[in-house]
Amino acid sequence: MLSRLQGIAPGKKKKLKVRVLRPINPNRIRHLENDIFEVNESGMVVATIKCVVVGDGAVGKTCLLISYTTNKFPSEYVPTVFDNYAVTVMIGDEPYTLGLFDTAGQEDYDRLRPLSYPQTDVFLVCFSVTSPASFENVREKWFPEVHHHCPGVPCLIVGTQTDLRDDPSVREKLAKQKMQPVRKEDGERMAKELGAVKYVECSALTQYKLKDVFDEAIVAALEPPPKKSSKKCTIL
């Protein structure tokens, strides 16, 4: 049965030509979790990849999504939560709809946030490289929460705001607290320890490796997992 992509307002669609970082064998593309399809303007049935972004508040999740979907950094008003957005991506000659879902990281939303998790194909678990506390919360809060509700769904760890990693004022502020920015190797180590698909980092401001984040998310959603696991989201 075909169903519409829920939660994405009409008109919030943008065509993007996606260059996947690693070739995907069409014969190995796995069955997507969400069973959601759209019918595009040409009458073609298009499968949807649902990507949910989680992480502490103020780590740049919304800017990440706005910069990717509009190709520019939001220099003025940044909403607390990004409107759900659908973009058309091409994997080889096959179109897919990439549904992007923002979430609020504040504790006030802990009960409501999981309502957006069912039928997710891939999670982006974000932290700011300028915030060691948000990095630790990847382990302490976000991975446990995601895996509790959606065991087996692939996750990428995303380090944001890399343009500020070497900023003197940022380093000075952290040094006063006997801390330093999170290093790339720290992110890679945590990804390995937690069983994340990969660690990637980017800057929404400069768009450094921004597209790579979503390319990797698409690959993670479409490639079959290395081991069989239960992939069903639950709300408890």
What is the quaternary state of this protein? single chain
Number of helices: 5
Strand content: 15-25%
Helix content: 25-40%
| End-to-end separation | 27 Å
The largest pleated sheet is described as: 8 strands, mixed
Determine the CATH superfamily: P-loop containing nucleotide triphosphate hydrolases
Specify the CATH architecture.
Answer: 3-Layer(aba) Sandwich
| H-E string | EEEHEEEHEHHEH
* Unreliable residue runs: 1-11
Broad structural category: alpha/beta
What is the overall pLDDT average? 83
Coarse shape: globular
Give the total of beta strands: 8
CATH level 1 class label: Alpha Beta
Main attributes?
236 residues, GTP-binding, Rossmann fold, alpha/beta, lipoprotein, 5 helices, eight-stranded mixed beta sheet, globular
Give the structure's gist in a few sentences.
This protein has 236 residues and is an alpha/beta fold. It has helices spanning 61-70, 132-149, 168-176, 184-194, 210-222; strands at 13-15, 37-39, 45-55, 85-91, 94-101, 122-128, 155-160, 198-201. Strands 1, 2, 3, 4, 5, 6, 7 and 8 form an eight-stranded mixed beta sheet that branches.
